[in-house]
Design goal:
15 helices, 3 domains, 36% helix, binds flavin-adenine dinucleotide, six-stranded mixed β-sheet, disordered C terminus
Length: 508
């Protein structure tokens, strides 16, 4: 115990800083571990980051947070997936849902059944959409939601969901949670990071007014500045712009003009894409774009022209470099959040990455000996997570059929990592998926994007031909009817939200 970490210092109080403070204070409740978080109101936070993936449930559950209270406080809505508009080609749309498609038959994957079925329907001049065989997609299109608790029976699969919320309110919510569990907040600017002259370990944060915050373990949550991991410990940054060409964003909230829908929308545009995230009290909007292909003023005009309601504040411009730190943990410093890297928000993965980094920090929590094997494992795992998510994002750009602007022509023609190329080739042959099971986005997600953007395999699994056509058609019809009836019986998302949160959930 003599070697135990006594003082943990978190540099930065954005989403990453307060999520870390909340989780560590909960995990070490009743112990002697002292936790201090340093942040500067004057510098502020990045102030965007509103859409999540379902793994957020585990984080909130770990903290013991009441869902209705959390949703009320953070103006949250339910999210069943992301609707992608104009990505495959102008005029196309599909949903990347949070649940599986249909149900398998005789151990044959549902999508293989669908490929044969869709082919036979096409021969009769009928188009069938894969979205119609997914509970989340159909519920989202109909603007319906219900908690899956005891809900929709197998075999169609349960509804799965995440949240859309105001990230600043979430950070404030977690601040209250953390402070009530003994976390000390220090306000002010960090002017210098002091290192031990012999070991190079971080010893203290020196504040602008001369105060010193000393610690044993430091978590760098200072955002893009990466004060500790980058500026002090010199972890290099791997730049992925050649694969993910967007490097700028403009964000602006607007008024709600309709009941909030239970999904995020991503609309492909001339040199990137626009997000639309409906919350209870407003809609979050943004344009993520590539600076070599579009200037900031042009992007701002395109964003403002696309708003549904009146802008509620002046647009904010943000620049970033997609990529990651070479090392996320060096000596006695662990980077979490934007300090560790950034993947553009196309699939709402940043808060998820914060969460998995926190879980890994707890799993490999050090003592003052700082075992090199623990540090190496943390770095290896984090690198793997970043690269798997990166590849999934690249897929969206690479398989576009758009050739209407130089940006989309670049994306279509660019080289991609081997893993992406191999996944596309495998799918194009017979619709096979070989995506690692530990990936946040399993084969189902890759399938959603590939089929949604118009990629069609040359053939289907030969085992499908063991099923008589009549049985195949009956199966497809029963899945579709089941989903149709299940979603028709669900309440409207806005009504459900009002009841669940016990307040008026939308302004419109
Ligand atoms: P920040 O919010 O930048 O916080 C940094 C903290 O460090 C602040 O408290 C700041 O005051 C402090 N600090 C910095 N320097 C000093 C100093 N010298 N002294 C004292 N304090 C200092 N994620 C999602 O999951 N979903 C999304 O939909 C999503 N959308 C996004 C859209 C865009 C355009 C961008 C850029 C990001 C988006 N993200 C999204 C990512 C998300 O916003 C961030 O991952 C998340 O907010 C974490 O940020 P952070 O806490 O690491 O950094």
């Amino acid at each position: 115990m003599q070697n135990a970490i006594q003082h943990l210092v978190i540099a930065g109080g954005g989403t990453a800083g307060w999520m870390t403070a909340a989780a560590v204070s909960r995990a070490f409740a009743g112990s002697a571990l002292k936790i201090t978080l340093v942040e500067s109101e004057e510098i502020g936070t990045i102030g965007v980051g509103e859409a999540t993936v379902p793994s957020i449930h585990y984080f909130n559950l770990m903290l013991g947070i009441d869902q209705a209270h959390f949703m009320r406080t953070c103006q949250a809505t339910f999210k069943l997936g992301i609707e992608f508009v104009d990505w495959g080609d102008v005029g196309g749309r599909y949903i990347h849902p949070f649940t599986t498609y249909g149900c398998d038959l005789n151990n044959i994957y549902f999508h293989e059944l669908w490929l044969k079925y869709a082919g036979s329907m096409a021969a009769r001049g009928e188009t069938v959409s894969m979205d119609d065989y997914n509970l989340c997609c159909v519920a989202a299109r109909r603007g319906r939601f219900i908690h899956p608790v005891g809900g929709v029976p197998a075999p169609v699969g349960l509804l799965n969901y995440a949240f859309q919320f105001d990230a600043s309110l979430y950070a404030g919510f977690l601040r209250g949670y953390s402070e009530s569990r003994g976390v000390t907040r220090v306000e002010g600017k960090i002017a210098q990071v002091l290192q031990n002259g012999e070991t190079g370990d971080i010893q203290a944060l020196i504040m602008e007014d001369g105060r010193s915050v000393e610690g044993d373990l430091f978590v760098d949550c200072s955002g893009r500045q990466a004060l500790l991991i980058g500026q002090t410990l010199k972890s290099a940054y791997e730049d992925w712009r050649h694969w993910l060409p967007c490097d700028r964003a403009i964000a602006v909230p607007c008024a709600n003009v309709e009941e909030p829908v239970p999904y995020t929308r991503s609309t492909a545009d001339a040199a990137g894409w626009r997000w639309r995230i409906p919350l209870q009290h407003r809609v979050g909007n943004g344009y993520v774009y590539s600076s070599p292909f579009l200037d900031d003023d042009g992007a701002e005009r395109r964003l403002l022209d696309s708003l549904d309601g009146a802008a509620l504040s002046a647009p904010r411009r943000i620049s970033f470099v997609p990529g990651r730190r070479k090392e996320f943990w060096i000596k006695n410093c662990v980077a979490i959040g934007l300090a560790s890297g950034f993947l553009e928000p196309l699939e709402s993965t940043s808060i998820h990455l914060i969460q998995t980094a926190i879980l890994k920090l707890l799993a490999f929590f050090p003592d003052k000996g700082f075992e090199p094997a623990d540090i190496a494992a943390f770095n290896r795992h984090t690198q793997g997570e970043y690269e798997l998510l990166r590849d999934f994002l690249i897929l969206h750009y690479k398989i576009t059929q758009r050739a209407d602007t130089p940006f989309w022509r670049y994306c279509r023609d660019m080289d991609v990592p081997d893993a992406v190329r191999e996944a596309i080739e495998l799918f194009e042959a017979r619709g096979r998926m070989l995506i690692r099971a530990d990936h946040l986005f399993t084969g189902r997600s890759w399938l959603a994007v590939m089929l949604g953007q118009g990629l069609r395999p040359r053939g289907y699994d030969p085992l499908v031909d063991t099923i008589p056509d009549a049985d195949l058609h009956a199966h497809m019809n029963s899945v579709r009817n089941y989903i149709d009836q299940a979603t028709a019986a669900m309440p409207r998302h806005g009504d459900y939200l009002s009841r669940f949160c016990g307040q008026n959930s939308h302004a419109g």
